[in-house]
Amino acid sequence: MDIDANDNSSTNDPTYFSYYAHLQHQQNMLQDFVRTSTYKSAITQLSTYSISGKLVMDVGAGSGILSFFAVQNGATKVYAIEASNMAAKMQLFLDFAKNNPTSKNAFLADKIQIIKAKVEEINDFIPQVDTIISEPIGVLLLHERMLESYIYARDKYLKPNGTMCPSMGTICLAPVTDSYLWAETMTKARFWQQNDYYDIDLSPLAEEATKEYFTSPVVGCFNPNSIMCNEKSVTRHNVDFYTIKLKDMLTIEIPVEWEIKYTGIIHAIGGWFDCEFNLPAARRDEISSNNPQTDLKNQDKFGFNNNLSCLPITLSTSPAHTPTHWQQVRFLLPEPTAVNYGQKIFGLVTLTANEHRSYDIKFDYSISNGLSKAFDFPSTNSSTFIDSPPKKSALWYLNEQVYNYSYNSDMALDSKPESLGLYS
């Protein structure tokens, strides 16, 4: 099915917006210290140039926390766009602030206009704004396809050289060894191989079960020591929120080239993301030329420097950093791949937007034989081989992600599926 770049609507929209109308889900995000504190830091750091005395739009405002941060930092007015019924709950904050002028929240009074709509369907007049803030991020950066709404808002409502907060996302991919998770998943799939389950043969669904289990990404934290490539060869694909076009969000191709750092077995591809908060390049250049000397002592009451020296600010969901509610994600290979130290894996990860507010992910790859690359770029669409090494492929559906709550990442490096006969 072809997907319109100007329409990221989905049959899943009612469920999606209903989910985010629940306070327990908003609380889960608010209690993510890395997420909330990084946004607080970023908005404070950007306040001198992009928030104080400015018009701000908050896309997907949710509980309103980012709007509140903007008002704390001097925003003249914030247009809080929220399509779910969380909009009514956010209004309770504003009503309380207006009716209780001596309360801690009094600063919010008459500063925020809540608009209950998708940003693509706003009927109210909104002027162009100086800054757009949003937390449009899902698993592997892209899940839920909220980034498209963020970009739509940029194209329609942001002033020239206005600020996007965040400004860039980076998708990170690396091969990982995770024998425990692979063995556990295969054991679950093999339940359907039974031919005498209460006198019923379950095996007609065995192939379908294996396919279902191994096309479902597994969300959860994993041990950074399970990464099998050198740090410098971890794939990092930047998505610049200032420049990317909506149509370019429908298909994203990411070439990979991993140099293996130790002999072992690759069971999955590990994925995570980083987000960066920065001013647009033209604005940074303008400020730098007008202020050649940066005052590092110019701190606000929170201890933040309102100058360029502290930018960019980065939010990382790397397995080597403090865990977040996004965690990381593993894409299990249906057939684990044995590799030797120094070998390289060349391939292409293709993410294709689907109608489930997510992406289908295809991975075509091969291991170099030591002579040359397995893929012939730059024509990533053709994926032409040289040397004719064996090509392998895997497919996952990001919207079918599962969570493994009983998983212990420390076990990943110890268990041996081969001893259980699960590789055959």
UniProtKB/TrEMBL annotation:
GO biological process: methylation
Superkingdom of origin: Eukaryota
Keyword Transferase tagged: yes
Key words, A-Z: Chromatin regulator, Cytoplasm, Methyltransferase, Nucleus, S-adenosyl-L-methionine, Transcription, Transcription regulation, Transferase
Annotated localization: Cytoplasm; Nucleus
UniProt cross-references to InterPro entries, sorted A to Z: Arg_MeTrfase, PRMT_dom, SAM-dependent_MTases_sf
Ubl conjugation found in the keyword field: no
EC numbers on record: 2.1.1.319
GO terms, molecular function: histone H3R2 methyltransferase activity; protein-arginine omega-N asymmetric methyltransferase activity
Pfam family, one: PRMT_C
GO cellular component: cytoplasm; nucleus
Top-tier EC class: transferase
Catalytic activity: L-arginyl-[protein] + 2 S-adenosyl-L-methionine = N(omega),N(omega)-dimethyl-L-arginyl-[protein] + 2 S-adenosyl-L-homocysteine + 2 H(+)
Domain Protein arginine N-methyltransferase: 169-279, 312-368
The name this protein goes by in its record: type I protein arginine methyltransferase
